[in-house]
Amino acid sequence: MVNNNLTLNSTFRQATLAGILFLQAGGVIVIVGDVESSMIAKIIWAGIYACTCLLVLMSSSSVFLQVKRNPGFILLALLCVVSTIWSSDRSTTVHHSIAIFGGTVLGYLIITKIKPIEFLRLIAIALFVLLAINVIMMLPNMLGCLGPSIRYSGVFPHPNMLGRISGLAVLIFLLLSFTRIIPYVLGGIGVGMGFLLLIACDSMTSIVSLCVAFGIFLIRRMVARPVGGGSVAVTVWLIVCFGGLVGLNWSIIIDFLFGLLGRSPTLTGRTELWEGLLGAVLRKPLLGYGYSAFWGGESNLTGRIFANAGWHTQSAHNGLLGIALNIGLIGVVLFISTVGRSFIYGIKLAFMSNNLISLSLLSILAYLLLLGVSESTYMVRNSIYWLLFLICSIYLNQIMDTKPIRTSSVIWEENENPDPNFIKD
Question: Among 19, 188, 225, 395, whose Cα sits 20 to 30 Å from the Cα of 329?
Answer without folding.
Answer: 395
